[in-house]
Design goal:
Length: 216
């Protein structure tokens, strides 16, 4: 789920001051919205542009994305890769592979982006890599597990970004009024806050991004 907590006029104003989507991303955005009932999960223009900028700033050699969906965020995150860098992206839904692979190819990133299909927790453990940048945007109930699985694979100075950490504003509700996913996100946010291995900030972009930097 990726919603926006901004008012519609502000959202439209902000959109007017973001560099235009590339033709490939615009086509992917359009096809996802036409063909997928769950298109709200797409990172979209604003968040995608932010992920791209962050990737350019970090200049990662290796990136891990947990939750490919149709490939929009993977394409954005791959833009800042160093020469010879790789991005591993994991998606459990086999039906999404073809559309992601299609647009990754059209973006000229087939040699840089490695698509994995299967259970994220198992695949993460099988990857013998150090990740300069990790993006978590998958099943909310397992955010804490994914954090635990990747934290030792991120070197000091590396970044972990988690999406949907405001969960449509539900995180401010009493726990008894939160959905199961919102309760899981609330637990994750509290876990990050008390973990001495990272410094962190919650950025209220769209549905909330938790940005964490691994400490030495």
């Amino acid at each position: 789920m990726t919603t926006s907590l901004l008012s519609k006029p502000i959202e439209e104003y902000v959109a007017g001051f973001i560099s235009e989507e590339s033709p490939v991303l615009a086509a992917l955005n359009r096809e996802t919205n036409l063909k997928r009932g769950d298109a709200i999960m797409l990172s979209g223009h604003l968040q995608g542009a932010l992920l791209q900028v962050l990737s350019y700033m970090v200049r990662p050699q290796c990136v891990l994305e947990i939750g490919t969906f149709t490939g929009y965020s993977a394409i954005c995150l791959a833009q800042g890769l160093q020469q010879g860098g790789k991005l591993h992206t994991i998606e459990i839904d086999e039906e999404l592979h073809d559309i992601a692979a299609k647009y990754i190819s059209e973006a000229g990133l087939t040699e840089k982006i490695i698509l994995h299909t299967g259970v994220a927790a198992e695949i993460i453990q099988s990857l013998d890599e150090k990740f300069d940048l990790v993006f978590i945007d998958a099943d909310k109930l397992n955010y804490e597990l994914y954090f635990d699985l990747v934290i030792d694979k991120v070197p000091a100075g590396g970044f972990i970004i988690a999406d949907n950490v405001l969960y449509d504003g539900e995180v401010v509700l009493p726990e008894s009024e939160q959905s199961k996913n919102a309760r899981a996100i609330s637990r994750f946010n509290k876990k990050v806050k008390t973990d001495s291995r990272v410094e962190h900030m919650l950025l209220p972009v769209r549905d909330g991004l938790m940005i964490m930097r691994k400490l030495g």
